[in-house]
Design goal:
single chain, 434 residues, mainly alpha, two-stranded antiparallel sheet, 17 helices, 3% strand
C-alpha cells in the first residue's frame, strides 16, 4: 500500500464510507423488484449476495476501490418494462439478466469493452465524470427531501424552515468543515453527527417518516433480526428467456449496464486519477470482467443486473485507492442478510450528505474540457446536463456519443470520427428509440 500512498486504516474508513453511501440499495432494490411479484425478502437476500460477491471480486481480483451492486434504473426497467410491459415472468427476466451477463463476459474476454472505452473522446470522458457528480448530488438532495416534486417546475426546494431541511443543512456544513480541516474519516463522522441530530425529528417535532427511507412498512420485521430468504436462487428461466420476442429485453439489459459500467469506470478514473500509465481506468480489463460476472451472478441468485456503483466516489474521496476499500464494503453487506432492520438506524438525510459533497468534488474535470471548441463543448455539455436531467447514465452518455458524431459529420470533420464510436452512436440511437 506504500506504492499507492495509503494505509490500512484509510482503506477501511473509505470502505465504511462507501458502504454507508450505498447501503440503501439493500432496501430500495427489493422495494422496486417486488413490483414484479418477486418476494421482497428473497430479493433482499439476492441484493446482499450480489453486492458482497461483486465488491469482494472487485477488491480481490481487480484491486480497485469500487463497490459493485444491483444498479438503479435497470431494476426499474426489469420490473416495469420487462415484466409488466413485455409480459415476461420474473423468472424469464432473471434469465435475460443472466444472458446479458454472458454477453458482457464475451465482450470483456475479447477486449471489446476496452476498445469501446478507448474510443470515447477525452472531452466526453471528462463530461461523464462531471455528469455523474451532478447525478449523485441530485440523488442526495432528493433522498434528503431537500429537492422535491413541484407541479409547476417539475422540481423545487422544500420549505426551508422545516426541521428536516435544517438538520440536513447543519450536517452538510459540519461535514464540509471536517473535510476542509482534513479530518480523517470526515464523511463517516458527518453521517454519525447528522444521524444523532436527526433523532429528535418526529419525537419532538416534524415527521419521522420523511427522515428515513420509509421502506420498513414493506416488510414485517420483528426486532433487529431477519432470516435470509434464498427462494430466488437458481430460479432464472435461462432457456425460456431466449425467445425471439425477448431479445430486445436482453439487448436493453446489455446496453444499459454496458454503458452504465463504462461511464462509471471512466468517470471515477477521471475524477480520482486512478489510471494506468496509458491513461485508461486502472486495471480496466479485470474491472470489466468483475462487472460481467456480477451481472451473470445476479441473474442466478435472483436480482437485476449488478454494476459498478457511482457511490464508490465517496470512499475514493475519503482516500480509498486499493481493493481493500471494496473488500471492506463488500464484507459490510453480508451481516445485513440477517440484520437488515438495522439499516433504518441511519436516516436518508445523513447518508445523502456524502452524495452531495462527493458530487461537488467530481465536477472538477469540467475544467479540462476546451469550451472554446464548439464541436467538443456542445456534446460535453449535453452529456453533463442530461445524465442528471434524464436520471440515467446510459441515456446521458448515449446522447453525448450521438451528438459528438453528428456534429463532427455535419461540420465536415469526418476524419475525427472513430469508427468504433460511429458504431456505438448507431447502437445508441437504437437504444434511445426503445
Amino acid at each position: 500500500m506504500r506504492q499507492q500512498q495509503t494505509t490500512l486504516k484509510t482503506e477501511i474508513l473509505a470502505g465504511i464510507s462507501t458502504f454507508l453511501a450505498a447501503f440503501y440499495i439493500i432496501i430500495v432494490n427489493p422495494a422496486i423488484l417486488s413490483a414484479a411479484d418477486m418476494p421482497f425478502s428473497g430479493v433482499l437476500t439476492a441484493t446482499v449476495l450480489v453486492s458482497a460477491f461483486g465488491s469482494l471480486m472487485m477488491g480481490l481480483y481487480a484491486k480497485n476501490p469500487i463497490v459493485v451492486a444491483p444498479g438503479m434504473g435497470i431494476n426499474a426497467f426489469f420490473a416495469y418494462t420487462a415484466v409488466k410491459g413485455y409480459g415476461l415472468s420474473y423468472e424469464e427476466a432473471l434469465g435475460a439478466v443472466f444472458w446479458s451477463g454472458v454477453i458482457f463476459l464475451l465482450l470483456s474476454v475479447f477486449k471489446t469493452r476496452e476498445k469501446i472505452i478507448e474510443a470515447i473522446p477525452t472531452a466526453i470522458r471528462h463530461a461523464v465524470a462531471a455528469g455523474i457528480g451532478l447525478f449523485i448530488c441530485f440523488i442526495g438532495f432528493q433522498n434528503a427531501h431537500f429537492i422535491v416534486d413541484n407541479p409547476d417546475s417539475l422540481v423545487g426546494m422544500a420549505d426551508f424552515n422545516n426541521p428536516i431541511s435544517l438538520t440536513f443543512l447543519a450536517g452538510l456544513m459540519v461535514t464540509g468543515a471536517l473535510i476542509v480541516r482534513k479530518v480523517s474519516g470526515a464523511i463517516i463522522f458527518g453521517i454519525i453527527f447528522t444521524t444523532l441530530l436527526a433523532w429528535p425529528i418526529g419525537r419532538w417535532w416534524g415527521d419521522a417518516s420523511a427522515v428515513n427511507f420509509g421502506q420498513s412498512t414493506l416488510v414485517n420485521f420483528n426486532g433487529i433480526f431477519a432470516a435470509p430468504d434464498f427462494s430466488l436462487v437458481l430460479k432464472a428461466d435461462i432457456l425460456g428467456s431466449l425467445q425471439y420476442a425477448y431479445l430486445s429485453v436482453i439487448f436493453v439489459f446489455t446496453f444499459t449496464i454496458l454503458f452504465d459500467g463504462i461511464s462509471t469506470f471512466v468517470g471515477l478514473a477521471e475524477a480520482s486519477g486512478l489510471k494506468d500509465p496509458d491513461g485508461s481506468p486502472r486495471n480496466m480489463r479485470k474491472s470489466l470482467l468483475t462487472d460481467a460476472f456480477a451481472t451473470l451472478f445476479a441473474g442466478l441468485v435472483g436480482s437485476s443486473s449488478g454494476t459498478a456503483f457511482i457511490e464508490s466516489a465517496v470512499g475514493i474521496e475519503e482516500g480509498g485507492k486499493t481493493g481493500k476499500t471494496a473488500i471492506t464494503a463488500g464484507l459490510l453487506f453480508l451481516p445485513f442478510m440477517f440484520f437488515s432492520p438495522l439499516l433504518s438506524i441511519i436516516p436518508s438525510i445523513a447518508s445523502s450528505i456524502a452524495l452531495v459533497l462527493v458530487g461537488s468534488f467530481m465536477i472538477i474535470p469540467v475544467t479540462k474540457i476546451n469550451w472554446k471548441i464548439p464541436d467538443e463543448a456542445i456534446p460535453s455539455f449535453l452529456t453533463i446536463v442530461l445524465i442528471p436531467f434524464t436520471y440515467s447514465l446510459s441515456t446521458g452518455i448515449s446522447i453525448g456519443f450521438v451528438s459528438w458524431t453528428l456534429l463532427k459529420l455535419l461540420s465536415g470533420k469526418t476524419s475525427e470520427i472513430n469508427p468504433i464510436l460511429a458504431i456505438i452512436s448507431l447502437l445508441s440511437l437504437f437504444f434511445l428509440w426503445q
